[in-house]
Amino acid sequence: MAEPLEEFEFVSGKTSQSKSIAGQGSTSQGNPAGDIVGEIEDLIQQVIKTHPRLKKDPQEDKTKLKTSDLKALLDISQAISSTLVLDEILQIVMKKSVELLKAERGFIMLLDEEKNLQFKTAHNLVKESLSQDDFKISMSIANQVARIGISVFTSDALEDERYSKQKSIVELKLRSIMCVPLKSREKIIGIVYLDNSSQANIFLQSDLDLFELFAAQASIAIENAKLYENILALKIYNENVVSKTPIGIIVVDKNFKITIANRSSQDIFRKIGWQSNFGDRELNELTIFDLVAPEEKGRWKKICYQVLFTGRPFEEDRSYHKTTTGELALSLKISPLNSLDDQVIGIIIVFEDITDKINLEKHLIMSEKLVAKGEMSISIGHELNNFLNIISNNAELLSINLRKGEQEKTEHNCKSIVETVSTMRRFTDGLMDFSKLETQKVEYDLVRLIEDLLFSIRPLKLFSKVKILSRYDNNLPHVWIDVGQIQQVILNLLNNAAEAILAKSDQGGIVYLTVSHLGEGSQVEIKISDTGVGMEPETLSRIFEPHYTTKPEGHGFGLFTCQKIVKNHSGQIKVESKPGQGSTFTVLLLTQPQVESLL
C-alpha cells in the first residue's frame, strides 16, 4: 500500500507526509489498525477514480499527455474560441477549469490598472448563488502567483509547511489548492484559482501540467476579448463623433458606393434639395451620384474621378445653393481614402455649412474716399442707400420670422442688420479725405467676390422678381484689385440693371453676369447685361458724367464713381444699349499688378 499512498500524499514534490499519516493510524484510539488501512485504501481508490492520470500505464510515456487530456484541451479551446465577449470568455474558462480538475470552488481574478487583483467570475460546486463569505480565498497565494508569475499547488495545504499556518487555510479548512497565472506575451494579466476541502479531490503535479496548458489558451482568449472590447469601444466612439459632428461627412468606396453618411450630411442635402430620404438599409445600395441634384451629376463625377485616380484632394472654399428660404453657402473638401499600404480605396467627402460665416464677413466694403468734399453728402447718401436696403429687407424678414417662431432665421436677420450697421460705421469713419479714391490692391479670386455679393443681395426686395444668371470661365486667374471698391462697382451695376428691368415690366426679368479670361492676355472681362428699358443715344453719351441721372430720385454719382474706381485699377468700363432691348456693361480688370514707370 506504500506506493499509492506516497502518490496521494504528494505535496509540491515532497513525500514527507506519508509517515505522518501512517503514524496517526497506529496511535488512533478505538479503531483497529486493519480498519484504518481499509479506509485509506478506499480513499485512494476514490482519488484514482477522480484522477485517472494516477493509473500508471507502462505503454505510455509519462511526459506525454493522455488522449483524454488532449481531447479535453481541444474541447476547451473550441469553447473559448466561440466568442469574443470578455464576460462570456471568463464564464467559459471558469466552468471548464472546474470541470477539468473537478474542483469544488474556482475564481478568476484579473489585474486592474494599479496591478491589484479583482474578482471577475466565481464558481462553487455546491452553491448556485454566492455570498460575500464564499469569496474568501488564500489571497497570499493569489498575490504571490500574480506577482512572480509561477504556478502554485498543494495537495494538502493543512499539512503543507508552506501554508499550514496561514489564517485563510485554517479557517476554510482547505486541502488542495491550485493557482495558475494568466499570461499574455509574458505579461501577467491575472490568475485562475481552484481549491478543494475534500481529501478525495486532490490536485497533483500532472493536474498542474495540464492546467498550465489550459491557462495559456485561456490567457490568449481573454487578451483577444480585451482587444475586441477596445476596438469595439473605439468603433462606437468614432461612430458617435461622426454622427454628432455638425459637419457633413460621406465616405464612398472605389465604386462610389456609400459606406458612411452621417446625419449632418443628410440635413444639408435636405436643405439644398438633394436626395436625403434614404434609410440605413438602402444606404449601401446608393452611390454619391444618386444623391446629388441632376444638374450637378456631371460636375460631381468629374471631381470624384479626379480625386480617386490622381490621389489629390479637391477643395472648394464656397459654393452657393438655393433653398426654399434663400441660399446656403457650403465649403467642400474631397480627399482620397488610403489603405494601410497607401492604396486609394475610396474617397471622403466633407461638407460644411458656412452660411453664418459668410454673413459675418463684410459683404459690402464701401470706398473710403469719395470724389470731392463738396459732393460728400450726396455721395454718402447714394452709397448708404445700399446698406439701408439690406437693413430694411432684414427688418421686414425679422418681423415675419418672429411671427413664425423661426429662431435661427430671426438670429440670422439680426446678425445681418448688426453687421451692415458695423460696415456703415466703418464707411463713415473713413470719410476723412474724399478728394480722390485711393486703392489698396491685393490678389483676389473674382468669382468668390461676385458669389459673396450675390449671396448678400438676392434676398433684397429689389431682386425678388429679378433673376441673376452667372457664368464663369474655368480656371480663371486671380485679379489685382481693391476688393471693396470692385465689389462696389459690381453692386452698382447690378442695382441699375434690376431697376431698368422693373422700369420696363413689373413681372421682372433676367440679369446675365459673365466673367471671362481674354485669351492669353492679362485681362479679365466682366459683363453685366439686363433685359430692361435700355438707353437713348443721348443718355448713353452722358452716362458717366457726375450729377447726370435719369432717375427721379437719383443724384448722378453711381456710374461716375464706378468709372473712377475702374480707372484707378488701370481698367476700362464700357456700355452698350438699345432702347427697349436692355443694356450691357463691360468691365476689364488686370490679372497682374501694373508696373509704374519711373520716368
Describe it.
This protein is α+β, with helices and mostly antiparallel strands. It folds into four domains: 2-54, no CATH class; 67-226, Beta-Lactamase, CATH 3.30.450; 244-353, PAS domain (Beta-Lactamase, 2-Layer Sandwich), CATH 3.30.450.20; 360-590, Histidine kinase-like ATPase, C-terminal domain (Heat Shock Protein 90). The chain is 43% helix and 21% strand. The protein contains 18 helices and 17 strands. A five-stranded antiparallel beta sheet has the order 2-1-5-4-3, with helices on both faces. A hairpin with a 2-residue loop joins strand 8 (314-323) and strand 9 (326-338). Helix 4 packs parallel to helix 8. The longest helix is centred in the middle third of the chain and has 40 residues, at 205-244. The radius of gyration is 44 Å and the shape is rod-shaped. The termini are far apart.
List descriptors.
599 residues; alpha+beta; Beta-Lactamase; 4 domains; 5-stranded antiparallel sheet; 18 helices; 17 strands; 21% strand; disordered N terminus
- What is the averaged pLDDT score? 77
Rg: 44 Å
CATH topology tier name of the largest domain: Heat Shock Protein 90
The number of distinct structural domains comes to: 4
Shape: rod-shaped
**For the terminal residues, how far apart are their CA atoms?**
127 Å
Q: CATH superfamily membership of the largest domain, which one?
A: Histidine kinase-like ATPase, C-terminal domain
Widest sheet, order of strands: 2-1-5-4-3
Based on the structure given, which CATH architecture of the largest domain is correct? 2-Layer Sandwich
Give the strand content.
Answer: 15-25%
Number of helices: 18
Low-confidence stretches: 1-34, 50-64, 362-374, 431-436
CATH class of the largest domain: Alpha Beta
Quantity of strands, as a count: 17
Helix % is 40-55%
The description of the largest β-sheet is: 5 strands, antiparallel
Q: Structural class, from helix and strand content?
A: alpha+beta
